[in-house]
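Dear colleagues,

As part of the handover before I leave the project, I'm documenting each prediction I ran so the next person doesn't have to rerun anything. This entry is a single chain, and its sequence is reproduced below.
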Amino acid sequence: MMALTQDELLAEFEGMTLIQLSEFVKAFEEKFDVTAAAAAVVAAPAAGGAAGGAEAVEEKDEFDVILTGAGEKKIQVIKVVRELTSLGLKEAKDLVDGTPKPVLEKVNKEAADKAAESLKAAGASVEVK
C-alpha cells in the first residue's frame, strides 16, 4: 500500500461532503478507539467557516455550549447545530431531539457566546458552562 502524504489526504477530505466526513470520523474513532474531537474542529471550517470558535481550543478558558431545549422552531435549531458542527442532518436532529446535549465543547468564551446567540436566535434554550 502506498502511503498518502498529508496534502493528499487533505485534498481527499476537501472533496468529501459533510455526511461523508462525519461517517469517516465515526469509522476512524471506532477503528482506533479514540474520540476525534479535533476532526470536528477541522471539518467545520470546510462547512463554510461557520465553526464559530473551533480555532481556540488551546486557550485556558474553555466553555461548553449545552442545548437544553429546541423550542418551537426545531428545524431552525437543527440548521444552526449543523452550521456550528460537522454533523449530518440525522446526527444534528438526534442531538436536538436528545436535549440536554453539548453542541460545542471546550471552546473559548467568544465562540461559546456566538454559538449560544445563534442557537437562541433560532428559538433554542442554551446553557454555557
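Residues 38-60 have pLDDT under 50 and may be disordered. The CA atoms of residues 58 and 111 lie 13 Å apart.

All the best with the project,
I.
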